[in-house]
Automatic annotation (TrEMBL):
Keyword field: ATP-binding, Cell membrane, Glycoprotein, Kinase, Leucine-rich repeat, Membrane, Nucleotide-binding, Phosphoprotein, Receptor, Repeat, Serine/threonine-protein kinase, Signal, Transferase, Transmembrane, Transmembrane helix
Entry EC number(s): 2.7.11.1
Predominant subcellular localization, coarse grouping: membrane
Record's subcellular location: Cell membrane
InterPro entries per UniProt: Kinase-like_dom_sf, Leu-rich_rpt, Leu-rich_rpt_typical-subtyp, LRR_dom_sf, LRR_N_plant-typ, Prot_kinase_dom, Tyr_kinase_AS, Tyr_kinase_cat_dom
Source taxonomy: Eukaryota, Viridiplantae, Streptophyta, Embryophyta, Marchantiophyta
Name of the protein described by the UniProt record: non-specific serine/threonine protein kinase
Reaction equation(s) it catalyzes: L-threonyl-[protein] + ATP = O-phospho-L-threonyl-[protein] + ADP + H(+); L-seryl-[protein] + ATP = O-phospho-L-seryl-[protein] + ADP + H(+)
Bilayer disposition of the protein: Single-pass type I membrane protein
GO MF terms, alphabetically ordered: ATP binding; protein serine/threonine kinase activity
Bias (Polar residues) ranges: 1107-1118
Gene Ontology cellular component list: plasma membrane
Chain residue ranges for the region called Disordered: 1045-1071, 1097-1118
Length: 1118
């Protein structure tokens, strides 16, 4: 019994101990769970937070003491507490830092959205461990590096968005393994390489955006296998080749953009099968051919952008079937024909832009029936007729641009009542009549440009009180009367151009002091009175242009407070007094012109403070004293003209280089000396001379000879050193022996070129000259190119510079420039590859065809088209390229013609290529590019002065060739007499100056053509002016030629003085020349003017009607 009780007592004790230890264990576990309560996923998120900055404490509720992260901001969990979504996209202040690799440990993660932050670093490859991931959005950050190939291992991924980062490298082909992928956006990065064909394996893909990268190669035709594709954006890359016709099978496609690439070929008609497409953008490529009629099958199309291509043909009338089409842009192509009348049936049209094409005919009046139209831009075509009324009948029209056409008649009155109008631009037409009243009352009108028409009457006073106008341009008309006093007093007017009219009276007191005006141009009028300046507040004006008026009095000293001025031109007025020293406070000034006034006194030394000054013209005044030595501080000064004053003393050394480039800029100052060691003789002792002293000239010659000797020695030494260095490193030569680069989507190889020319065999040479040989290469694709072999020694070339410059030239595109297809280096030689034009050169057509094709007739219309196209091309090179390109060898043999006899200038940039690849070429060294005698500007022969004006001179010579049919150096002319000298002599001695023109051409012209030929002869005289600074710019030439093209149909004639014969080319020593024009006397359009006119005189010759041309001259520039 006792034993039993003892056993029972022992069991009870054991049981009590078991219960005791059980409670202890439970307590310990409870304590442990309190210490390590945060789940594993929570720890991962804390690791993420530790690598980002959260200054706004957006993640303040992410606490380590929590048992799980399911209640944290941006976190979503499943029922088991696993994190399945992390979305911290743009939470208040954006996060910075990097993406933690530990996020790959969130094994149940389905959604990761870290978009719109400032995250840097790379995309973690560890994310591939999140095998359940469906959405990965890291867009709009600053992530770099490459796209991890491991992302291709995410089998459930349906959305991948890495757009707007800084990712580099290739698009991984492994992404083609994402069988569930429906949306892929890698746009706006720095990705390179090809578009992977493997992406076509993504059968569920609906959205693909690879735009705004650096992708190259062709568009994979296999993308057509992505049959569910609705959006395809590949724009803003460097893709080449044709648009695959197979894409026409994408019947679900709604959005398609291949813009801003280098695609070639025609638009596939098969795209008309994409019946669901709403947005089609193929702009800014090199697409050729016509607009497919099949696009009319796209019944849901709303936007059609084809601008900036090379397409031709007419606008298809089938587009009328696109009933919801709202936005059309066909601008900057070569489209011909008329504006389809069917447009009026497209009631949903909102914007129609067909600018810069070759459209003809009238603007359909039925366009006024388009009730939704807000934008109509038909600029730079060949449209004629009148501007139809009613375009704003719906009161929705906001933008109307019809500039640079052949439109006639008056401005519709209802346009001045169009309350919705935001901008109206109709300059450079033939519009007549007065400006309708009411434009100044339009509350929304901000831009009004009516310039360069034939508008008459006065400026409506309501324009002076407009409360909305930002820019107003009425330049180049026949307006008279005074300037309305309200101009400048009503903000927000920023730009006002009333130049080249016949305005009289004074300048309104408030206009110069406007608190908002930035640009004011009142030049070329008959304004009188003083320049009234009363600076009460800060004046923001940057450009003040008042030249060619009759302004009196002193130059206001208050102009020194116009701190923002970059251009001040008060030239050719009647201003007197001295030059205010306050002008030295205009520290932003880049151009200052005070020429042809009656200014006295000395040149203020304070002008030396203008550190950004590039052009200064003080010529033809009565200034005395010396040129301040402070001018040595103006390092930016490139053009200075102080001719025809009374200046004396030593020329500041900084100006010697300008003297060497343009000696005529200093003539008429006999007291000027080059150095202090020479005698500065008085004007009385040198009154029979108009040039620098003999000692000065001798100094210049000695300096030039010395420089030439030093240069020769340096060249010999450098070449010897270069040869020794080259022989020492033959292996480096072999590494860079060959190079091949093509542009604009062309697809051929160096081997193709070598095979098609048999390694540049002479049998394939079509032209040889002293500095190049040209080969004709017919490629396997059937394309024919011209390959120019440049002839110069290898040791004259810097390899990298040549390649860089060639690539730069290859990017230059203009319809009147021969396109550089590519370049290559092969066996130490340099080759440039161009488009081949079948009609040969202008020289061939003008001269060689006379014998080879006696029945061929090159009429004046074709010749004028050549002249105008050349002018536009040269103006583009001079004024629209940065830096500007000077051709240096403009000649008829370098002007090639296409099948429509449209000119294309070749060899542009060639001089830059050669000059930039020479070793240590001095600035004053003779250029290596061979120029052609007869086309060379005079200053080029004796000063090597390289400015764009040498191209202008050469252009003038070609005009003479077109006009007379003679060569620049014609064998029928006296020995060593060029066409320019012959023309001047012929006209000065002939009683029938028109006989200088090619008889067969002139006799086959109508009245308009004959008038046009005589007008172009004037342009030739301007361009071949002996003094380079007195020639027009090519931009001015284009304006004159375009005006001739528009207005030469009107009878334009000149009455000349009986005392002298026609003298367009004849120098004259008269102090002034006055020519008046009338609508009679049809036999004399050559002007009795000094050919040495200045740049500003060209626009004075009002070539639209040849109104009246008067200029004053004191002294001769012989």
């Amino acid at each position: 019994m006792a034993a039993g009780e003892s056993a029972l007592s022992g069991n009870r004790r054991n049981w009590e101990l078991l219960v005791f230890y059980t409670f202890i264990i439970i307590g310990v576990l409870g304590m442990l769970s309190g210490v390590q309560g945060l789940s594993k996923d929570g720890q991962v998120l804390l690791d993420f937070r530790s690598e980002v900055t959260d200054e706004a404490n957006v993640l303040i509720d992410w606490k380590a003491s929590d048992s799980d992260p399911c209640s944290w901001s941006g976190v979503t969990c499943d029922k088991r507490g696993n994190v399945i979504a992390l979305n911290v996209s743009s939470l208040e202040d954006n996060f910075a830092g990097s993406i933690s690799r530990s996020l790959g440990n969130l094994t149940k993660l389905e959604i990761l959205d870290l978009s719109k932050n400032n995250l840097k670093g790379s995309v973690p490859s560890s994310l591939s461990s999140c095998v359940g991931l469906k959405i990965l959005d890291l867009s709009s950050n600053k992530l770099g590096g490459t796209i991890p190939v491991e992302l291709g291992d995410l089998p459930k991924l349906s959305l991948l968005n890495l757009a707007s980062n800084r990712l580099e490298g290739h698009v991984p082909e492994e992404l083609g393994q994402l069988s569930a992928l429906s949306r892929l956006d890698l746009s706006k990065n720095d990705l390179q390489g090809l578009v992977p064909t493997e992406l076509s394996n993504c059968a569920k893909l609906e959205y693909l955006d690879l735009s705004n990268n650096n992708l190259s190669g062709a568009i994979p035709p296999s993308l057509s296998r992505c049959s569910k594709l609705e959006t395809l954006f590949l724009g803003s890359n460097s893709l080449r080749g044709d648009i695959p016709a197979t894409l026409g099978s994408l019947t679900r496609l709604q959005m398609l953009s291949f813009s801003n690439n280098e695609l070639t070929g025609a638009i596939p008609a098969e795209l008309g099968n994409c019946s669901e497409i709403e947005f089609l953008d193929l702009s800014d490529n090199d697409l050729r051919g016509s607009v497919p009629r099949e696009l009319g099958k796209l019944r849901k199309l709303r936007v059609l952008w084809l601008q900036d291509n090379m397409m031709w043909g007419s606008i298809p009338s089938t587009l009328v079937n696109c009933r919801v089409l709202a936005d059309i842009d066909f601008s900057r192509n070569n489209l011909t024909g008329i504006i389809p009348l069917e447009f009026s049936e497209m009631k949903s049209l909102v914007s129609v832009v067909v600018a810069e094409n070759l459209l003809v005919g009238e603007i359909p009046r039925s366009l006024s029936e388009l009730g939704n139209l807000t934008t109509l831009n038909l600029a730079r075509n060949k449209l004629n007729g009148t501007i139809p009324g009613g375009l704003c009948s719906s009161s929705r029209l906001s933008t109307l641009v019809l500039s640079h056409n052949l439109l006639e008649g008056e401005i519709p009155v209802d346009l001045a009542q169009c309350s919705s109008l935001l901008q109206l631009r109709i300059p450079s037409n033939r519009l007549s009549g007065s400006i309708p009243k009411g434009f100044g009352w339009l509350k929304k009108l901000q831009f009004l440009d009516l310039g360069y028409n034939d508008l008459t009457g006065v400026i409506p006073t309501d324009l002076g009180s407009s409360s909305s106008l930002i820019e107003l341009d009425l330049a180049g008309n026949l307006l008279n009367g005074t300037i309305p006093p309200g101009f400048g007093q009503f903000p927000p007017l920023l730009k006002l151009n009333l130049s080249s009219n016949s305005l009289t009276g004074g300048i309104p007191s408030g206009i110069v002091n406007s608190p908002t005006l930035i640009t004011l141009d009142l030049s070329r009028n008959a304004l009188s009175g003083p320049v009234l300046v009363n600076v009460a507040t800060t004046v923001p004006m940057e450009s003040l242009i008042l030249h060619h008026n009759q302004l009196l009095g002193n130059i206001p000293t208050e102009l020194g407070f116009f701190q923002q001025l970059t251009e001040l031109n008060l030239g050719q007025n009647i201003l007197n007094g001295s030059i205010p020293s306050n002008l030295g406070k205009l520290l932003n000034l880049r151009a200052l012109t005070l020429k042809r006034n009656s200014l006295t006194g000395t040149i203020p030394a304070q002008l030396g403070n203008l550190m950004f000054l590039e052009e200064l013209d003080l010529s033809e005044n009565h200034l005395s004293g010396s040129i301040p030595s402070s001018f040595n501080n103006i390092l930016s000064l490139t053009r200075l003209n102080v001719s025809y004053n009374n200046l004396t003393g030593v020329l500041p050394h900084r100006l010697v280089s300008i003297l060497q480039e343009s000696p005529s800029s200093f003539i008429g100052n006999p007291g000027l000396c080059l150095t202090a060691n020479l005698d500065c003789v008085s004007p009385e002792e040198r009154r029979d001379h108009d040039d620098l002293s003999a000692g000065a000239v001798a100094s210049i010659i000695i300096a030039c000879v010395f420089a030439a000797i030093v240069f020769s020695v340096l060249v010999v030494i450098s070449r010897s050193y270069y040869r020794r260095g080259k022989s020492r490193y033959p292996e480096k030569e072999a590494e860079s022996e060959n190079e091949f680069r093509i542009f604009n989507g062309e697809s051929f190889s160096l081997n193709d070129v070598l095979k098609s020319t048999r390694n540049f065999d002479d049998a394939y040479a079509i032209c040889k000259s002293r500095n190049c040989t040209i080969y004709k290469a017919e490629l396997p694709t059937g394309k024919v190119i011209a390959v120019k072999k440049l002839v110069f020694r290898r040791d004259d070339l810097a390899e990298e510079v040549f390649s860089t410059e060639a690539e730069t030239v290859g990017k230059i595109k203009h319809r009147n420039l021969v396109q550089l297809v590519g370049f290559c280096r092969w066996q130490g030689l340099r080759f440039l590859m161009y488009e081949h034009l079948p009609e040969g050169s202008l020289s061939d057509v003008l001269h060689r065809h006379k014998q080879e094709a006696p029945n061929f007739f090159f009429d004046w219309k074709a010749r004028f088209r050549v002249a105008l196209g050349m002018a536009r091309a040269l103006a583009y090179l001079h004024h629209d390229c940065t830096p500007k390109i000077i051709h240096r060898d403009v000649r008829s043999a370098n002007v090639l013609l296409d099948t429509n006899f449209e000119p294309q200038i070749s060899d542009f940039g060639l001089s830059k290529l050669i000059d930039s690849t020479t070793i240590s070429t001095p600035a004053n060294a003779t250029p290596k590019v061979a120029v052609t005698y007869g086309f060379i500007a005079p200053e080029f022969a004796y000063t090597n002065n390289i400015t764009e004006k040498i191209d202008v001179y050469s252009y003038g010579v070609i005009l003479l060739e077109l006009l007379t049919g003679r060569r620049a150096m014609d064998p029928e002319l006296p020995e060593n007499v060029g066409i320019v000298a012959w023309a001047r002599q012929f006209i000065s001695s002939s009683t029938n100056p028109e006989s200088i023109l090619a008889a067969d051409v002139y006799d086959n012209c109508d009245a308009r053509g004959k008038s046009q030929m005589l007008l172009v002869m004037k342009v030739a005289s301007y361009c071949t002016n002996h003094q380079d600074t007195n020639r027009p710019t090519m931009k001015e030439v284009v304006q004159m030629m375009e005006q001739f093209d528009r207005s030469s149909s009107s009878s334009v004639n000149a009455s000349r003085r009986a005392s002298s014969g026609p003298a367009a080319f004849m120098p004259t020593t008269s102090s002034s020349a006055v020519v008046e024009y009338s609508d009679s006397d049809t036999d004399s359009l050559f002007l009795d003017v000094d050919p040495y006119t200045t740049d500003d005189d060209y626009a004075t010759a009002d070539d639209r009607s040849m109104g009246s041309f008067t200029h004053s001259r004191s002294g001769s520039l012989h």
